[in-house]
C-alpha cells in the first residue's frame, strides 16, 4: 500500500466513526426502555372507602412513558366514578351504599404500552358499635356521663363538640366538619356552629345537640341513630353538685377520713360543701348540698341521681368566730332516707345522729353506728369551736331541683324512683361512691329502720 492509499483509508475510517457511535446510543435507549415496563396497581386508598364519605383516590402507574391514558371495565359503587382519557385515573364521588363492585382499570402510556389492575371496592358501613351505642358519637370537653339519652356534657364556657363515626372495618373517622349540627330547644340552648363549636345559652336548662352525618338521621328509622349529647347549662346548682363530688373524693382519700367499712353500710349520702357557720353568742348554720342513695327498692343498686338538699338551723351557747365547713352525712337506714326526701327532718330529734367514726379503726364504734340513723362528718377550713349539727334541719330543695333538672320533680321521685338521669355535674360524686362502695353491706334490710 502506498502512502497516498493509506491516507485515503484513514480519512474514510474517520468519516465513518460518527455513524457507528450514533447507532450505539440508539440501541442503548431502546434497551433502557425495555427494562422500564409499565405497571398499574390499586392504591391503598381503595381499601379505605367509606359510605357517605367523599372519595378522592388516584390510580398512579409506574414505569412506561408519560402521559398516561385510562379506561375501565366493570363499575364502581353507587355515587362513585372514575375520570378517563389522558390524565384520568381519579376515583371520586360519595358512595351511598355498601355493595361491593368489581372494576378493571387499563392504563396506556405514550408508546402504546398497557397495564391492567383489577380490584373490588366495598365501602365500609356505619356499624353502630361506638362506645355510645351508636355509629356516630358526639363528645365534648369537660365531664361526660353516659345516660339513657346519650352522652351528657357540662361546660362552664364554650365547648368544641366532636362527631366520631364507627365503621364496619373497625376504623374511626372524625366527621365534625362534615356533620350538620343542631341545638334544641332553640334559641334558649344557645347556638352551635357548622364546625361543632357550642356556645351556651343564658337560660338554665337541659338541651340536646345532634349531629346529622350526610344521609344519616337520628330518628331511629331508615337512617342510623345519631347519639344525642346533652348540654347542661352552667348553673349554681350544677356547681354545687360538682363541688360535692370533689369534697367526697378528698375526704375519702384522707387517712383519717370516713372508713370504707362504714360507707359500705350506708343507704344514702348527703354532702353539703362549704356550709357557712356563724356565731357571736348565738350559733347557726346554713348550707345547700346534695343527697344520693343506692338504687333499687332495697337500696342495693349503684348510686343514683342526686336531689338538692337544704341544711338550716341554729344552736345556742358561747361560740365565737365564723368559718366554712364541709359536711358529709351518712344515712344508715331507709327510714331516715325516706323521711328527709319527703319532709323536714330535725337532726338529733326526728332522726338520731352521732359523729361518725374516722380512720381505719372502727371496732370501738360498731355499736354506735348501728344505733344511729345519721353519722355526720365535717371538714373545717378554719378554726372553730363547738361545731355540731344537733338541732339543724334537713329538707329537700325543690326549687334547686327544678333548676338542676329543668322541670318540677320531687326529691323522692329523683332518688327513689329514678325519674331523671344523673346530671353530668354528678359524675365525680357518683364515680367515687361507686368505686369506694359499689355494694351495700348493711346485712338484712328487713331489720333496718324499725
Oligomer: single chain
Approximately how much beta-strand content do the residues carry?
25-35%
Number of strands: 23
N/C terminus separation? 143 Å
Q: Tell me the number of structural domains.
A: 3
Shape: elongated
Number of distinct helices? 8
Describe the main β-sheet briefly.
Answer: 6 strands, mixed
- Estimated helix fraction: 10-25%
Question: Any low-confidence stretches, pLDDT <50, length ≥5?
Answer: 9-33, 143-153, 217-227, 277-283, 316-321, 382-387, 444-450
What structural category do the secondary elements indicate?
alpha+beta
Mean pLDDT value: 75
Rounded Rg:
38 Å
What is the compact description of this entry?
With 450 residues, the protein is α+β, with helices and mostly antiparallel strands. The protein has helices spanning 3-34, 236-253, 260-263, 334-342, 366-371, 398-405, 411-415, 427-436, and strands at residues 55-58, 69-74, 80-82, 85-86, 90-93, 101-108, 114-121, 136-140, 144-147, 150-154, 159-166, 172-174, 179-184, 190-192, 197-200, 206-213, 228-232, 268-293, 307-331, 345-346, 353-355, 374-380, 393-396. Helix 2 packs parallel to helix 8.
Architecture overview:
With 450 residues, the protein is an alpha+beta fold. It has three domains: 44-121, Immunoglobulin-like (Sandwich); 136-232, no CATH class; 236-447, no CATH class. The chain has helices at residues 3-34, 236-253, 260-263, 334-342, 366-371, 398-405, 411-415, 427-436, and strands at 55-58, 69-74, 80-82, 85-86, 90-93, 101-108, 114-121, 136-140, 144-147, 150-154, 159-166, 172-174, 179-184, 190-192, 197-200, 206-213, 228-232, 268-293, 307-331, 345-346, 353-355, 374-380, 393-396. The strands form five sheets. Strands 18, 19, 20, 21, 22 and 23 form a six-stranded mixed beta sheet that branches. Strands 8, 11, 12, 14 and 15 form a five-stranded antiparallel beta sheet that branches. α2 (236-253) runs parallel beside α8 (427-436). The longest helix is centred in the first third of the chain and has 32 residues, at 3-34. The model is unreliable at 9-33, 143-153, 217-227, 277-283, 316-321, 382-387 and 444-450 (pLDDT under 50).
